[in-house]
Amino acid sequence: xxxxxxxxxxVKHQINEEQQNIIINPNFDDGLNNWNGRAxxxxxxxxxxxxxxxxxxxxxxxxxxxxxxxxNGIQQEISGRFxxxxxxEVTAVVRIFGNNVTSATVQATLWVLNANQRExxxxxxxxxxxxxxxxxxxxxxxxxxxxxxxILFLEGPPPGSDILLNTLAVKHAKRNRPDHPPFxxxxxxxxxxxxxxxxxxxxxxxxxxxxxxxxxxGQGAPRTLPPIARDTLGxxxxxxxxxxxxxxxxxxxxxxxxxITDKLKLFxxxxxxxxxxxxxxxxxxxxxxxxxxxxxxxxxQWVNGGQIEVIVGETWHEITGTFRLEKQPEKVMVNVQGxxxxxxxxxxxxxxxxxxxxxxxxxxKKQVDQVRKRDIVLKFSxxxxxxxxxxxxxxxxxxxxxxxPVGTCINxxxxxxxxxxxFFTKNFNWAVFGNELKWYWTEAERGKLNYQDADxxxxxxxxNNINVRGHCIxxxxxxxxxxxxxxxxxxELMNAVQKRLTxxxxxxxxxxxxxxxxxxxxxxxxxxxxxxxxxRPLMFNIAHKLDPSALLFVNDYHVEDGDDTRSSPEKYIKLxxxxxxxxxxxxxxxxxxxxxxxxxxIVCSALDKLSVLGRPIWFTExxxxxxxxxxxxxxLEVMLWEAFAHPAxxxxxxWGFWELSMNRENANLVDGEGEVNEAGKRFLEVKQEWLxxxxxxxxxxxxxxxxxxxxxxxxxxxTPAGIVLKTFIVEKGDAPLVLSIDLSYL
Length: 746
Description:
Elements: H1 4-19, E1 36-38, E2 41-45, E3 61-65, E4 73-77, E5 87-97, E6 103-113, E7 119-130, E8 135-142, E9 149-155, E10 162-172, E11 208-210, E12 214-219, H2 227-233, E13 242-247, E14 255-259, E15 270-280, E16 290-298, E17 301-310, E18 317-323, E19 332-337, E20 343-354, H3 357-372, E21 373-381, H4 385-390, E22 394-402, E23 406-410, H5 418-427, E24 430-433, H6 439-442, H7 452-463, E25 467-475, H8 483-486, H9 490-507, E26 514-519, H10 526-531, H11 535-546, E27 551-556, H12 569-581, E28 588-591, H13 600-610, E29 617-622, H14 629-645, E30 649-654, H15 678-689, E31 693-697, E32 703-709, E33 711-719, E34 722-730, E35 737-742
Parallel strand pairs: 21-35, 23-24, 23-30, 24-25, 25-26, 26-27, 27-28, 28-29, 29-30
Antiparallel strand pairs: 1-4, 2-3, 3-10, 4-9, 5-8, 5-10, 6-7, 6-9, 11-14, 12-13, 13-20, 14-19, 15-18, 15-20, 16-17, 16-19, 21-32, 22-31, 22-33, 33-34
Pfam families: CBM_4_9, Glyco_hydro_10
Domain GH10: 391-686
Protein name: Endo-1,4-beta-xylanase 3
């Protein structure tokens, strides 16, 4: 007989567990019991500011007052009331008051004291609070290890202003079940949704202007689609050569626009392409490079659809980008804008069309066979010729490990979770540390070095035969540089740079396979501005001398997606050539790969351009983001196949995979409690596709031939005398690999 009462009890227990608040006295019904100030005072109020501020709920609220620093606030210790490896959701109702501060960020932070007195601060969530209304602060956290103490506190506003707290709850987070895979009814792949993109017959409708600029039609644009659009769409009839001419521009944002709300479909990925050119307007404006941007206004929020930098009077340029909607908007407008006031803008053949990404992946799978596989000949000896006629020798070949580098970012707190470690060690053969090798982590205070976190992580990787990238020695973006470094004079800073190189590369010599030497040089210039142009090649050359075995990389973002004129492939190539001209030992090209709604043709175009440098290309920080796990999985699959199919790419590093251990929302492959989501399943399926298998019989020449990926194989040969098991490794090589296998000992 079925025990329905037991099932109901389990359900009730689960509901009660999810509803249980681990915060004691969450509404201050018991005064300030279990609450205290973090280096400040706490006070209970029924109202403030002459009755203007009253509780949103309940009868009272608390204030953290007499705050002397941004980290001061109200706190509660939750030690012993949480479960490790469980995801909790924090919900608080907050506002600010005093010191003439009308708006400030309030952040919920968790302080954790781990084993060996290792402190950890977990930023849970933040919200922009005001002195006018209560707002909700909401976020999640998970504790991987078994800390001795844990304290949740609010912080953030400037000193002198109060943090007001009405209620705070911490409950077991419910997992949102994934949406169904999007259904695209009549997706119209390859069909341009822009009306009158060729401005035929001299008419500009339905185009209109943003601002009081003027639209007219010119003749002389290219009669073919731009190359990247052509790569996706294939053969296309010739264009008419007309273009939109925009004159009398008085603001950067002025240009042609068109409403496209009703033509867009949710979760479809759109490729954007156009020819653009600029000319000297009536004001004879600047000849300096100008940005041209295709922008989307989605319910009055601007979204980047691609950018390019062009010079007045130059030839036509292709601008490209991608776009996707994941929530139903009220109105969407596309607009072409960007150059300085007074500069004329010309746009031809603007295309916005949905992309059939599955079809491209099918083509890439065929391309991969040419790029990544090697012919293998197994030559057998010791066969019984008499029995061969009666009993064919059957060969089963199964690849157990693909040696192509697929790695991930990990953090020190992650490895306290055995479930995280299990997924990591089973599915990745390379690693990179998220923060633990960065200078601001290893020497937050001058002269106080901390390599313990990196040592712990490196020990785990070495113990599991996982190679490690060193990220990063320096970081050119000033906001990432420690305050004590920013205060040094030129001589002191140069000495600190040389000491940093010596400390790091001596300590880890031979243990780290790569280094990102000076991160994001296309987006920052802290060291170059203070120490001169020669400091960049100097960093590479000192690093090479200290550890000649390590490959030294440049590393930057938005190189592959057309979203940022500062980091176009052309500018990245120029950076590398300039470094090499100054003697820098550049060994590899790092593309971070923080990408949205990727389109294969755009990514491939960037890879093709960068491949002329003749250096190995790695995706060093790949992540994708979508609220729909199925779409997220397809985004990731697009990037994996584009990389794997391109001969210049020699490795892929994901920028994490575990929920709450990643920088981006809606990017994880595994949820915070260890369940692989739909995107993670897609990732694992692709990894399985990258394992070769073969089955057949030994031929009359005593051979068995097949083509397979590089890596480790197991072979099973069924003979009249029994089964023979062997293993072998396929290394890189152009010539067929010939392996001899002796079966005579049976």
